[in-house]
Amino acid sequence: MNNRERFIRTLKFLPCDHPPIYPEPVWLTTLQTWRKQGLPENVTVAEYFGLEPLNFIYAGPQTGIFPPFQEQVIKEVDGWIIKIDRYGRTIRDYKHQTTMPEWLDFPVKTPADLKRLVEEKFSPDSLTARWPINWSEQVKTWQSDGKKRDYLLFLDGGCYYGILRNLSGVETASYLFYDAPSLVHELFERINFFCLEGIKRAARAGLEIDYLGFGEDIAFKTGALVSPALFRQFFFPRYQKVVTAAKEAGISLFVYDSDGCLLPLLKDLLESGIDCFWPCEVAAGMEPLVLRKKFGRRIKMLGGIDKRSLAKGQPAIRREIESKLPVIQEGGYIPRIDHSVSSDINLENYRFYLSFLQEKLAGG
Question: Can you tell me the distance from the alpha carbon of 240 to that of 43, in angstroms, rounded to the nearest whole number?
Fold first, then answer.
């Protein structure tokens, strides 16, 4: 049994030898520290810890901003850089450290800006150009690899709030829902169109798609960045539409990626048909045991291992993993750090985390 099979079977509550353990995102600054602590140069984290990889391959068209803005370096100093990124944002970022960048400017400041970008960067006429040139050849490879392939194929269900926020920033995005609702609806409809076309074409090609993904980051530590009312007005209909189309195409797993506290939106998210959530940040109240108790087997999860425990040492790591055993044993849950491996986690603590997790997943 490979990690793809473990991924699917675990999240569908099917018998499995153990949930998959595969490489987690590690900060650049974390890697730099680990090299000093004994991680050899030119050896990946996966190789060092003997982890079986799990590759995720996107099988659809580009559904976001297209064409992207031309990236451009404005200023570069010893430790940091100012540049225009693919979303047209002006950002300041460190060159050799992992942090969130500082956003200095956004291309959308007014409804007029949004209207212009919707027409320029989200035209339905761009659909053909949004597909990879070699997509048909890729399809042959995916079909030839068959059910025993060791990678997951997925399609996009939409990044609606994520795209609006990337173009305008959180504050302006919040105003646009009220000041220009028709333009926000138009943007979301066009994103939805590209996602639906991806599902349709993959179905016509006979592809076996493993899951439909959503990448939103629609929440922060104590709540959601939109109200439940706004969610039902702007998001729910689009989510429901792509989930329905995906189910008709034989897709049965729907994975939603958002940091923060999704609790105010979870009931509506589940009602829309989305059933699996990542990374389940414990610090934001997304504790897997609590979620399972509240929603039962309707909810499936990845993540939920409190990253803060890994910085505290072995006793805390042991307690954190042992606390998750009931939901691990029930299924529908893949334990992973609840986002990425931050630089306050040293190499020895991460080694203990992996070995203790492997021991428990093996029934130890």
Answer: 44
